[in-house]
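Notebook entry, structure prediction.
Reason for the run: the old model in the group folder had no record of what sequence produced it. Starting over properly, with the input documented here first.
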Amino acid sequence: MWNRYLQPTSLAEALQALAEYRDSARVINGGTDLIIEIERKLRAPSVVVDISRIPGLDAIRVEGGVVSIGAGVTHNQIVNHPLLRERAFALARACWEVGAPQIRNRGTVAGNLVTASPANDTITPLWALDATVTLTSARGQRHLTFPEFYKGVRKTALAPDEILTEIAFDLPPAGALGTFLKLGLRRAQAISVVNVAVVLNVAADARIVDARIALGSIAPTIVRATQAEQSLVGHALDDAAIDEAARLSSEAAKPIDDVRGTAEYRRAMVQALVARGLRQLRGGTEQDDFPARPVMLWGGTDGHFPPLRIASHPSSIETTVNGRRYTVNGGHDKTLLRFLREDLHLTGTKEGCAEGECGSCTVILDGIAVMSCLVPAPRADGAAITTIEGLAKNGALHPLQRAFIDEGGVQCGYCTPGFIMSGASLLDEKSSPTQADMQQAITGNLCRCTGYVKILKAMETAARLQGQPHDSGAESNG
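New structure, fully documented this time:
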């Protein structure tokens, strides 16, 4: 997949590597886009520079009324931030709509921006928030607005030797309103057909002081519906104002026909989504379906991967899997999924899609659920990993493994390891999950046999079994 895989322990070291290798190098953090691009032969970097364990890059700071999001901040870390959920809900909601929990645990907001697809969910609310990006190289820093940064479909102003190190925007004032709405072809793991972000500042007399409406997946880059914004200023959110803003937003959209929707359909959906979003903000219902304690699949962690303390091994991978230490000479040029199966011969982790769509390859990396098909194998160096083989302890099945047997949650069994790993992570995170929690936990897992009813029943049973003595049984690979 690549010739050299570098894991710098500092930003300066990473920038030095980019200055040296330039066009032949590519930065990786979450890898949820880059790994797929490499697998599809859309990119072929000879050098990959992994910045995912550089200390401090995964920090969210709010100072002097300005929000700063580091290059390593994941989507789930945004979702988990109370102040951003309260004051920048459009961004938190967009992050919540990205992929599934395992994707949100690895995928970063900065990576979502750099990929530069107009359908990427987080670009739209950040554009509405008038965010800026900081691009850092060994030559210095540049600060760009979003219109300056984006040059077209999957095209940005990022130079080969630069890293997007910070995203910044002014924290909306208390009382500001915002939301994000997305139309996809399914409820989870869906690419946007259309998405909309609305941010409003409202005066005490309920009149709008400032309005920002951004439209995604309807043009080469995000579109600001400026005439619609202007039509709202000075008015209350009555039906007439909402209908006019929605109409003007539809006129601002210049979509094309593609496999996910026609231009005519997208224009109609822009109008519908803007109207819906404004009505939600008027009624205060925009967060009604947003969980107070979202499912992260962080297990017992705080959602932050530990930093790499020392330089990684150039020729071997030293890792701990299911409590056992391994040293493997080689294996650097593949995914973690294939490393586990081919080098460690732990075949319980299955390859279903190799694109982060089915969840069959879910494992626990440093306490956090991830899809191993989208994790580079060298990321295992110095890490602790749990696979399906490691859930059973001393001959006793994990409560969820036992429940899958008792409740008939297994049919062909191929997807089962991924479901069990996601469910086990949920049970570590929430001892008494709700039905909604369980459904959210498995949004990244696909089953072609059971229709999910028995799987959810097994998760309910396992939640009851937790804390009780485990039934004895043979160790299982799922």
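Summary: The radius of gyration is 23 Å.
The old model has been moved to the deprecated folder.
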